[in-house]
Amino acid sequence: MKELEKRYVENFYSGSNWNFEKTTKYIFEINGYMIEAGYFEHYMNNTLIKVVIELPQSYGCPGKCQFCASASINNFFVLDANILEELFKRIYDDNRLYETSYVLLTMTGIGDIFFNFNNIKKFLINIKAYKNLYVTLSSCFWNKELLREVDELDKYIKVKNIQITYVTNEKDKINRLIPFYQGREFYMDEVFRYIEMSDKKFYRINYIMIKNVNDSKKDFNDLCDIIKKVRDKVVIRIAKLNETGTTKRNGLLPTDISVLMEFQDLLRKNNVNSYVFYAYKNDNMNCGQLITEG
Question: Which residues contact 258 (CB under 8 A, 6 or more apart)?
Answer without folding.
Answer: none
